Amino acid sequence: MVSVESRWPSLGTHEKYLSSLRRTKASIHNTILPDFEMRNYTQTLDHFNFGPNSYDTFLQRYAINFKYWGGANTSSPIFVYIGDEGKLVIDKFTTDFLVTKAPHFKSLLVFIEHRYYGQSNPFGSMEEAYKNSSTLQYLSSEQALADCAQLITDLKKNLSAENSPVIAVGGSYGGMLAAWLRLKYPHITIGALASSAPILYFDDITAHNGYCSVVSRDFRESSESCYRTIKNSWHEIKKTATQYEGLTALSQMFNTCRPLTSVEELTDFLEQIYFVKAQYDTPFYNGVNFLCEAIDKDPHEIDPLRRIASGFKAINGISMCLKVWSVEEMNENDRLFGWRWQACTEMVMPIDCTGKEQMFEESPFNLTDYMSRCKTLFNVLPRPHWITTEYDGRNIKEVLKDFGSNIIFSNGLRDPYSSGGVLQNISSTIVAVTTTKGSHCLDIAESEVSDPDWLISQRNMEVQILDSWIAKYNSQNYKS
């Protein structure tokens, strides 16, 4: 059984993965790119109550780029990138799509950091902010959306840009926020580009095993042998662990940086690696094929456990040990701990691995166990139905067709979270843009010279749709 804690981090930007990917891309040199100015905004702590803390504020970090903006007295738009469960990072990986398209739109660029992440800390230090539920209570998607609405409104006023159309952009959880911002505050933005936003992965709207099913399919399409090896390895890992000095043997076999203290440390780690390889299987990274080639390297080895171990040694480097992180180590990461709070309150995504075609251990989602773990961690109980109450989802087609407009839901179908995304057009202005070979947030990530035609076409289609929204807005509302 995979622990609940190990699966929570799989939404979003996978800090460990992106850090290593950024280091490998020669085009990335600076944390903060030129032409971006870092600013702080005095943000309201609690937007929804009038109690003792109703006038408390904190400094919310955001970045702004005026280089390509046509100005407040023109019809030039403002593109607002909605931060997710991670610190605000202004580099090519994060900003490239909006920066490269800015000359076309003559747009002002604004990147907002999510409260409680990075430097947007309401209580001075992460240690203080994450101390208990009394300080964590202000970390929610509703508060984050209100942050964006207030910051955007004040920024436009200060720039005398009240008539400038605003487009919200985000990826993953940030993509969900971008779509929800458009729905909850339609007077703030004229549209949203929601990349890889699994807004349907709540309650029973999406099959609980959707995520693991796509991961399994990705690996199977890469290599049937690799898929079978992984599928058969779990039993062998558990069998070895039960033997005398079994954990020691597994530690040596995988060359872990420290001795394993439980078999779950290894199985949870491996599962997370498979998740990451599939979720971010970009044309540049090609993680699934890379890993499968390593696992399949010795066709004469029939032991699935040894094939897996040798594959990980090959991709990690013979001289490098394998850093298997524990739940305790993951809790030390501010981003992951903050997301655990959100997952233990409103963001209850019932992900499980079940079904004969899965390459993972059978691990059905158990809400009782989930709630028990949250009670232990934070002394709170999740509200598993709140997201669909607050933002809908069950009747999304009917509701959005009647009451919504101007949202692009973009998904790459190799992304496991596409299983919880909007994959079909809902109306003429709420559209799904999908690519068969695309992965998580690939359309708004950094472009490469070697980008395939299908990815270029996806981005061009999104630009055309955004152009049409801006043109319609300006024809109806802009006053020179």
TrEMBL record:
UniProt-listed PANTHER family: LYSOSOMAL PRO-X CARBOXYPEPTIDASE, PROTEASE S28 PRO-X CARBOXYPEPTIDASE-RELATED
GO-annotated biological processes: proteolysis
Family: Belongs to the peptidase S28 family.
InterPro entries, per database record: AB_hydrolase_fold, Peptidase_S28, Ser_carbopepase_S28_SKS
SUPFAM superfamilies: alpha/beta-Hydrolases
Biological source species: Platanthera zijinensis
Molecular function via GO: dipeptidyl-peptidase activity; serine-type exopeptidase activity
Sorted UniProt keywords: Glycoprotein, Hydrolase, Protease, Signal
Protein name: Lysosomal Pro-X carboxypeptidase
